[in-house]
Write a structure and sequence with these properties.
Blueprint: E1 2-6, H1 10-21, E2 25-29, E3 41-44, E4 47-50, H2 59-69, H3 73-77, E5 82-83, E6 86-91, E7 97-101, H4 104-114, H5 118-126, H6 129-141, H7 152-158, H8 164-171, H9 175-186, H10 201-209, E8 212-213, H11 222-234, E9 238-240, E10 245-251, E11 254-260, E12 263-266, E13 269-272, E14 296-303, E15 313-315, E16 320-325, E17 333-341, H12 348-354, E18 363-369, H13 371-378, H14 392-395, E19 406-408, H15 419-433
Parallel strand pairs: 1-2, 1-13, 2-9, 6-15, 13-19
Antiparallel strand pairs: 3-4, 5-8, 6-7, 10-11, 11-12, 14-17, 14-18, 15-16, 16-17
Helix pairs in contact: 1-11, 1-15, 2-15, 4-5, 6-10, 8-9
Length: 436
């Protein structure tokens, strides 16, 4: 079967190699002059920073992608993904600090050290999510689904009126563990009052699987992009760069081609791996959703090292600042990326200095991106769809869509944004389409 994949970000790459391995004739159409989307690097003056993802949870998803599409990741990478000792460090307004490890026992101990009774409170909050993960894994993350044919236990979760803000208020009298649990969503621009309580399963995933990465010396997570691009060639995928898709062509009630400025690219099936709003045929089906806006970003190169900063540090407050050392730098220098959300009335490095880390006199290179510039560069928000209550999960497209022969994958599709969820979405689409 001829399959056209629209969008060469991580979702497009992942679904293309899976479908090609299943024997389909795959053409990948990408608007820009390079593949990878957010899974790439920003480079200037000898520095290179991960443009998007810096770590991942559920590493089995990436390993499965490589194994199901060709050689094992370890052989391609020259070694396995690297586990991080600390998922992230949280620094609070009262100057207290929590270094969040993986593992239930270690997390309980870390919270107990933060405050008496917080260890038991954290365990009581996270433990029920083990059952939530089991239900979602079997019937939502790993099995194709449609809103009209959901198992009762999954429908009960997805349709629950409970939201994460209420769950956190009930679970913690201390704001600090609530900030830790809510951080993954706040960092992506969501209001916790609009995030379903079941989505908090991410805390269980971080506890169970930890955080993993590819070291900067080996190319960072952008190395996965390089390996997948090479696999496109191995699997015979046709890649059309600088070819923006303008719409889908529907004939006889079924998709027949992808329209581009250069003409139509015929296909028996089409996989939308971009924001569906960019394709007029799909746009009406996602009219009730909104994109989650990226943060303000500063990629910074400095003289000297950054020994006092762990892999990721969250400075809680308004604005909230996230600091991620990492990337390639000339000898005697270091690279870091700073994200900001909230009331940003001053420069991000000034905010960082107020929190005790003043790098302003050491800066030798810098690349800034506004949320608008990030969306323009990647053709959509890397954080996908904004949570607007319990109905949001059913308003996203994927793995199928209302248009026969059209499927959806990526941050804007089911099951959501992030390397793990997007990778699971690619596997779902490959399962629905099946072998050639």
């Amino acid at each position: 079967m001829r399959v056209v994949v629209v969008g060469g970000g991580y979702g497009g790459l992942a679904v293309s190699v899976r479908l090609a391995k299943l024997g389909h004739d795959v053409t990948l159409v990408e608007a820009s002059d390079r593949l990878g989307g957010a899974l790439t690097t920003v480079e200037t003056e000898g520095f290179a920073w991960d443009a998007g993802p810096w770590s991942l949870q559920v590493p089995a998803v990436v390993r499965d992608l490589f194994r199901k599409s060709g050689q094992a990741l370890e052989r391609e990478l020259g070694g396995d993904l690297t586990p991080l000792e600390v998922v992230r460090e949280h620094r609070f307004a009262d100057r207290s600090v929590l270094r969040l490890p993986s593992g239930a026992r270690r997390q309980t101990d870390a919270f107990e050290a933060l405050g008496p009774g917080l260890g038991d409170a954290w365990d009581a909050y996270v433990s029920p999510y083990a059952e939530v993960w089991d239900v979602l894994r079997r019937h939502y993350f790993e099995e194709p689904w449609t809103p009209a044919a959901l198992p009762r236990e999954v429908a009960a979760l997805l349709d629950s009126r409970a939201h994460l803000h209420r769950r956190l208020r009930k679970a913690f009298r201390d704001d600090r563990p609530a900030m830790v649990a809510g951080h993954p969503f706040v960092a992506e621009g969501h209001d916790l009052r609009n995030v379903p309580a079941w989505a908090g399963v991410v805390t269980h995933l971080e506890q169970l699987f930890g955080a993993w990465t590819v070291p900067a010396r080996d190319g960072g997570l952008a190395r996965l992009r390089d390996l997948l691009v090479a696999r496109l060639a191995t699997r015979g995928v046709t890649v059309l760069l600088d070819t923006p898709a303008t719409d889908l062509v529907v004939r006889g009630g079924r998709v027949a081609a992808v329209a581009t400025a250069s003409g139509e690219v015929a296909g028996d099936a089409v996989v939308c791996a971009v924001d569906p709003r960019r394709l007029p045929v799909l746009a009406p089906h996602v009219a009730r959703t909104m994109p989650a806006m990226p943060p303000v970003i500063a990629h910074v190169g400095v003289e000297g090292d950054l020994d006092d900063l762990p892999h990721e540090t969250v400075l809680h407050g308004d604005p909230m600042v996230v600091v991620r050392p990492g990337g390639r730098a000339p000898e005697g220098h270091a690279a870091l990326t700073v994200h900001g959300r909230g009331r940003l009335a001053e420069d991000l490095l000034t905010v960082l200095a107020r929190h005790g880390t003043d790098l302003r006199q050491r800066v030798v290179a810098r690349v800034d991106r506004t949320p608008y510039e990030t969306v323009q560069a990647w053709g959509g928000s890397p954080h996908g769809v904004l949570w607007q209550g319990r109905g949001t999960v059913r308003r996203r497209l994927g793995p199928t869509t209302p248009v026969p022969g059209v499927y959806a994958v990526g941050a804007h599709a089911t099951p959501g944004s992030g390397l793990a969820y997007v990778g699971l979405g690619a596997a779902l689409v490959a399962t629905v389409i099946g072998p050639a």
